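User: I'm new to structure prediction. If I give you an amino acid sequence, what do you actually give back? Let's try with this one:
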Amino acid sequence: MTGPAPKSAPRPHRRPKKDPARMVAFTALRAVDERDAYANLILPSLLRKAEKNEGFERRDAAFATELVYGTLRMRGSYDAIIGACIDRPLSKVDPNVLDVLSLGAHQLLGTRIPPHAAVSATVELARVVLGDGRAKFVNAVMRKISTQDLDTWLEQVAPPYEEDAEDHLAVLYSHPRWVVAALWDSLGVWQPQHCGRTAVSELLAADNERPAVTLVARPGRSTAAELRDSLPAEESEAGRWSPYAVRLVEGGDPAVVPAVAENRAGVQDEGSQLVAAALAAAPVEGRDELWLDGCAGPGGKAALLAALAAQRGAALVASESQPHRAALVAKALHGNPGRYAVITADGLRPAWRPGSFDRVLVDVPCSGLGALRRRPESRWRRRPEDVANFGPLQRGLLESAIEATRPGGVVGYATCSPHLAETRVVVQDVLRGRSDLEYIDARPLLPGVPDLGEGPDVQLWPHLHGTDAMYLALLRKKS
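Assistant: Good question. You get back a string of structure tokens that encode the predicted 3D arrangement of the chain. For your 479 residues, that looks like this:
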């Protein structure tokens, strides 16, 4: 008679191994979700901290950056796919678990990481930050996701286009439905001949592309040629529209450019450069001595305006209502050879007399829907009511800018949003009933830039111009 079979020895417990790049990415996502942090602000500090650890290399930083931004951009699509792989609503899933799954989904569906490696690394991350129990759930979901590629999944989870076009595109291109609707409406006004399904899809796809880093040479202090000469030829190219722009290709690092280190140049989207340059080029009647940037933070447009003003012997006042942003403006303007002043002041309660300025720019606070390439988390954070809430402030700032401008001077109203309620509607509302203002056609002041519509105001687009979706209206105060 034989006894019971001997029990096999239990497998020794293995401590999960931390992957530094994935840990940085997870920590950044949690900060975005829990504290409404912006990825472009929180991620650099996390990377600097990680770089102090031995073995954390530049490629780890690049990988962590791709994980964070790629996951945030495609979160809507990944949520739909994850939802198809679990037996409960996403709202019932622990946010920590959902962030791990989203990072894993991006590795499986949005990178070239082999599926087995993506699953294994995600489960290992889950063991570190969630524990062994919930790591088993992550493992099961990841294996389901790994059975199909992204296109196949999207065909399966997106509603048919014929039944709900906006909802279909929202899932396919990872935008909230209301944002899809708003962008489609705006595109229909600005590009009526090109506002069908293909054009909207191209716009939404452009929002999901990682934007190139663009430098600005500040006139009189540096040139685009100098910036390009300071970089290997394969790491830069001339800007498409702005004479001050240099675009960095993959691998280009602005930190190694001497002019950037010396504050003679900076990092600035080409759309923002065009707005500042157009205001500076608009014809004024009479003197041209004193300019105002009424919403100057964080200082990119102010720095370009100050450089252009210095070339003409004009002075710039850069006003910002928030002290910490005013400090950023002062930093951006440091070293400018011309005359300038940075002040902390509320644009709705001006610190200057009416009619003081020859040129005034107000780049007003807005929903930021024009910069979704750079701040992908904004698409999930904003709500339709936010657009309405910005309206009174935007109208008030434009009215204040008009009062600050002397007769014969020029006002520029700009915003990084293509939403009609933040752009043309604001300007038309303020102009209604006034006879002391006239539009300046802004299109000739952006030479060479195509597809600017019928004017006189202009709207830039990521898919047409490769810029943020900046809006600009130029107004002259009649003599």
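You can read the tokens as a compact description of the fold. Here is one thing that stands out. The mean pLDDT is 95.
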